[in-house]
Amino acid sequence: VEARHVNAMRQTQALPGNYLTPQTMNERAAAVAKMFSLRMKSYGMKELQQMGAGGIIAVAQGSAREPRFIVLEYRHAQAKKTLGLVGKGVTFDTGGISLKPGGDMHEMKYDMSGSAMALHALAAIAEQKLPVNVVCAIAMVENMPSGTAFKPGDVYTALNGQTVEVQNTDAEGRLILADALTYVQKNYKA
Question: H or E element: which one contains 159?
């Protein structure tokens, strides 16, 4: 079972950035949710704005692709506590305005590996019906430079209410992970 899910994770992370987008990862998560009878919530830009997830919004605003914040839940009747799996889901990371050097940029499709790991770890847990409650939260974005991209010096408000001044737009992972971590702690006490 574990090997099958590890292989599924590897297959997901190896997809090119034009195949694995926030939207197609949402479809993959929906398929996993259906296969293992998981509860799933998926938030787009409008819901993220209402929620106040400023980190996810800031990173995603330079991309033509809308972000997705995907939350999956596995429940077991004998579990007492909830484990949180939070995964970084930058489907392609150019570095944004703080552009990465071009030589190895093709490798930046792997910046979503944490989200693939979290999704397929949850699938392995659910398939084996392990006695634990699990919430999996994956923030899916592209970090692109454009006229709408966030810039060094910009200030945004994270989901926990803290303001953050961006020094380098290539530090996008901590921005989206902070919102995802806050969400699972606030809503699930994970």
Answer: none
Any bridge partners for residue 42, and if so which? 70
159-171: pLDDT as tens digits: 999 999 999 999 9
> Catalytic residue positions?
100, 174
- Using DSSP's 3-state secondary structure scheme, residue 85 falls into strand
Residues 43 and 30: their CA atoms lie apart, in Å, by 13
178, 158 contact by CB (below 8 A): yes
Q: What is the pLDDT of residues 44-69, one digit of tens each?
A: 999 999 999 999 999 999 999 999 99
Q: Which residues contact 126 (CB under 8 A, 6 or more apart)?
A: 36, 37, 38, 74, 134
Count of CB atoms within 10 A of residue 44's CB?
14
For residue 74, list its beta bridge partners: 134
For 99-107, the CB contacts below 8 A with 24+ separation are 99/145, 100/170
Dist. CA 81–CA 147, nearest whole Å: 44
DSSP letter for 40, please: E
- CB proximity list for 128: less than 8 A, separation 6 or greater: 1
